[in-house]
Structure prediction request, 757 residues.
Amino acid sequence: MQHVIIIGAGLAGLSAAAALAEKNISCALISLQNSERAQSVLAEGGINAALDTMGEQDSVQYHYEDTLKGGVWLADPNAVRNLTGHAPEIVRWLENLGVPFNMTDSDIMLRNFGGQKKKRTAYARSSTGKIIMTALIDQVRKYEASGLVHRYSHHNFIKLLLENQICSGVRIQNLYTGELLDFKGIVLLCSGGMNGIFPGVTTGTTQNSGDVTATVFRQGVALANLEMLQYHPTTIGISGKRCLVTEAARGEGGRLYIMKQNQKCYFMEEKYPELKNLMPRDVVAREMFFVRREFGGEVFLDMTELPELTWQKKLSDLRQEILHYLHLDPKTNPIPVREGIHYFMGGIDTDEFHRTNIKHLYAAGECSCQYHGANRLGGNSMLGALYGGRKAAETIINSADFISEENINYSGEIPPPASPVLIRNISQILVSGLGIVRNQRSLQTALENLHSLSEQKDYTFYEKNRLLLAEAMLLSALERKESRGAHYREDYPDKNEAFRKTTVSECETESQVRISFRPIPEMRSDT
Amino acid sequence: MITLKLEILRRTSPEDTPVWKCYDYQTPDDTANIASALNDLNQTLENPVRWECSCLQKKCGACAMLINQKPRLACDTSLKEFVKAGTVRIEPLRKFPVIADLIVDRTILFENLKTMKLWFAENAKTNGSQTAYEASRCLQCGCCLEICPNFYAGGDFAGMSAMTLTARLLTALPEAQKKEIFKAYQKHIYEGCGKSLACRKICPAGIEIDQLLVNSNAVAVWKRKFRHEK
Ligand SMILES: Cc1cc2nc3c(=O)[nH]c(=O)nc-3n(C[C@H](O)[C@H](O)[C@H](O)COP(=O)(O)OP(=O)(O)OC[C@H]3O[C@@H](n4cnc5c(N)ncnc54)[C@H](O)[C@@H]3O)c2cc1C
Ligand code: SF4
Ligand code: SF4
Ligand code: FES
Prediction:
């Protein structure tokens, strides 16, 4: 028996499990596959914290300001205050777990990352996520051995158990035996981004199918800012997915250009002389889209001027990867890059304490909508997942009215997974409406196509959930009649203060999507 | 255009008798690999082939399987290699219990890490150690265990997937843990390994297993011997 049920064992889930265990609270840690396979291991560039080890007079205040500004003032300032304030502590904690961050002579080395004026990103060469995960998995193993963390790998989330709109647990299935289980307890969702809604065109893992988010939405959990999809400007196409070229490539001096009348045009440097190639991701991605539309051809990332030592010490893994997949050596050849869907700022609507609209249900990490507003800064999401997991655990501990009931075997039917054909069809519709540059017409057409797809037949449980989530995504983008962060509307190219609000999606009567806007909380003076 | 026969050893459950099934496969994608082929194939099958994947870029270890008898990652194995032969044989790893088709239960690998108590009991800084970094890269995919003549599930020998994690700990092991971890290392790694290094060649992450092994032996075994001799 456990006190808390955590769905997902990436950075957020592990962080929550560790935080609960530190206070002697037990949890069931449920995931489709082992933690080693979670998307968190893919993170490359690093994690942000104003450690100020580089003599640049960085501060938590600057980190706070950059994060709010990067998110174009759509993030909850109180939550961001907490996040950035605790960032140094989180990175020191990781250091104490034995994460071999790159070091200066005396302390953790920090690098430049997009949207930040100071060096603030701690990293372990170009495999930061993997290296942090290894240390965190080791740490949680200690709690597994002491009986505080009960792992259920290869288990699939089926649905929430709700009693009068209060969450009382989850139904899960053992994928190896087929056995169904009803687990009772407070539930914390850490199930990652919605990659599976866009199969083949994201940089993430196939494991994060989006089914958890879609299902809880249908069950009455509110979602927020679904229109905010982050396109990473530099990805390369490999078989079955988009593969990320870390932002560190530009942080270390990589430059973007396109051929214009047979000349290399360094369009980012020309247009943005201060931050140049390190403008926030949405800006870079959009500029790439526009120069391609104007001049034709591909955009190239030029890393040929980077010093040998940088390749050896900082970007060795990246070089290997590009060699492996493109058969090109980035040391000597510029490489063609395009935008790919990389991060979901939107997701399960949570407050700064990581509570959802349903009692006893919490969410943290990439599945939740928190901290990043209209755009996430590189290096802030690992931080958000680690801190968010911790914060959610803290809230749960403080509000402790733990349920103590036995888990039981469930013996009924469960719905089949969504058909691959439908998944692909929905994805195509969404991609056509929710590209980097959007407008009323393309969104409206996408919505109509989705409706005619929805009416084609009687869909199964998971299929309906997906259709509803897709509709909420399109409606959110339609209703936000402005451009802000990752959401760019050609027909409303400017930011509009009236829309400095959270887009909330709710599913009424299991079939009707309702969109509303909620004001951003005021900054409290006590934090 | 790539044209190939995919021969896949299939079974619906652990108890089922496995059967080789042959599928014709064609793709215009020259960079296609076994993972993308399995995904494509599954779109056309009424009973899709069960297998595990996640990252599709050889970073998570999920998709380890036997490909023409060799333990490899499906997403790291290009179809081009097999075009000439015209066929490729795909089956589940043999050292672990099969669940269905290409899925095996690698729980034993993780259990061994627990048995050896591989964690830091207190704060420990690795100070940017290159060894800790290299060791942390291990995918826990199990390819090294599959190829190893000395590893079998349930035996004392935990194999290189446990050695890598120990190597990370050894770079900063707190005094209080030394005795226990050294002992575990001796029993579950040092004594079982014949040092043929077949594992080094097969490791899809290209981990410098030989280097890590030499280092770890030096710290965990020889130092201890040396102390005993004193
Ligand atoms: C290529 C790449 C590079 C990145 N680089 C950086 C970077 O440099 N810096 C940075 O800050 N961020 C980076 N990110 C983003 C960051 O890695 C993620 O946002 C973060 O790791 C998410 O952690 P998480 O714990 O929320 O989710 P994940 O790590 O995705 O974990 C999700 C968990 O949920 C489980 N799960 C999902 N569905 C189910 C289900 N149905 N049933 C049961 N369990 C389920 C999965 O098994 C998994 O354990 C990068 C992302 C990618 C893809
Ligand atoms: S050492 Fe290599 S082969 Fe063995 S588990 Fe680790 S990554 Fe896989
Ligand atoms: S060196 Fe040989 S015996 Fe030792 S783990 Fe590798 S394959 Fe096995
Ligand atoms: S799917 Fe991750 S290694 Fe192949």
